[in-house]
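Troubleshooting log. The previous structure file for this entry was overwritten by mistake, so regenerating from the original sequence record. Sequence copied from the archived sheet and checked twice against the printout by T.R.
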Amino acid sequence: MASRNLTLLTDLYELTMMQGYFKNKDKNETVIFDAFYRNNPCGGGYAIAAGLEQVIDYIKNLRFTAEDIAYLRSLGIFEEDFLQYLESFRFTGDIYAIPEGSVMFPREPMIKVIAPIMQAQLVETAVLNILNHQSLIATKAARVCFAAQGDGIMEFGLRRAQGPDAGTYGARAAIIGGCIGTSNVLAGQLFDVPVSGTHAHSWIMSFPDEYTAFKTYADIYPSACILLVDTYDTLKSGVPNAIRVFREMREAGIPLTKYGIRLDSGDLAYLSKKARKMLDEAGFPDAVISASNDLDEFLIDSLKVQGAKITSWGVGTNLITSKDCPSFGGVYKLAAVQDGNGRFIPKIKLSENSEKVTNPGNKTIYRVYEKESGKIRADLICLVEERFDEQQPLLLFDPLEPWKKTRLAGGSYTLREMLVPVFQGGECCYTSPKVMDIRALCQKELDTLWPETRRLINPHQVYVDLSQKLYDMKIQLLNQMSEK
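Regenerated output below.
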């Protein structure tokens, strides 16, 4: 939506930690935080990066207003010198990010923040809130679109979303993930994306009979005439009345461009096959059959297997809420602290759960593509100073089971660095593409995945490996911690 100040969109402990840093540490001490996630959503093999444009907008408008300061003062837990510091607070650090629409995988940084510790700490909550939500919905949309096998998916979930922001930014993310449009008019206005819709059952019910309702709608919208046929009886009333209207349009010389029917209840496979036969026999083989009614990727996939004659899908609740997987699980962890000589000292978080042990240091990500196919072979997390020669062999190994190794021959692979600069010295240096352009990028990114990684159930997991240098650093830190 329009730019707005979201500075207080944060957890209280971010502010109490900030005051603690202000009182007890050098508030300009530079640190590195990584935002990443641990498991792919929806049991899938990948995720889609989304939300960066809103993160940029948040950082640009990061400042405490007089009203913000007054509210914080009223809490009675912040001292005046700290509140006075907040009056001139601005973000002055660097941010690197995976561009929106990119495919990404667990444990690799979605965003890397390099900034004075108080600034880096404050942005944690809002950054995660924005990235977690939009990346989740974009990923869900990509799965739904994959199940549809090239059919158009419309996002129809605004009324079921968890509030206006979730509905509007969720629509944005759904477009990025592959939807061809949304019913959300505000999203259409804000993000310049296609909007579309038909009519409700109430339209039919408000007229004396179904035929009159269809005829009136066709008169108003002859070039976008999709008729909802299940208000009374789909096969005995709805489809025959739709055919009658289409015949009258043709006889009147009205071009039949975008026209057809929508099913919103019943056995969609059976009804669509019967309706297709009726439409074909009446001379309307190009009439669209669209469907809605609590669809998700699994139901669409099942309907495809059953031979349903549906070619356009409206997906609402299960998409806009990602109902089967309602949270993304992104986290934000300290990776390094700069010493007095300007060197970054790596930091690591330990855990009884091995997957929660963090990767230390100032890192970047290289995506490894198979040169012949252009498909993703692996992602390699390494330290920023490391360089690789594509003409030399590349050793990849599983960081949790390092005896599992693969050596790629020189010249058989290509590398692409995934993290790009977004802010430098507090100034934005990145221009977000338009949403439809991000959608196009996402489609290209998805094409770099092997089919086995895109399948809906038990997908192949893309390897996310550590460079030898980063792995050695991590093991050294783990050994040091165990000796204490």
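The CA atoms of residues 14 and 124 lie 8 Å apart. Archived copy saved in two places this time.
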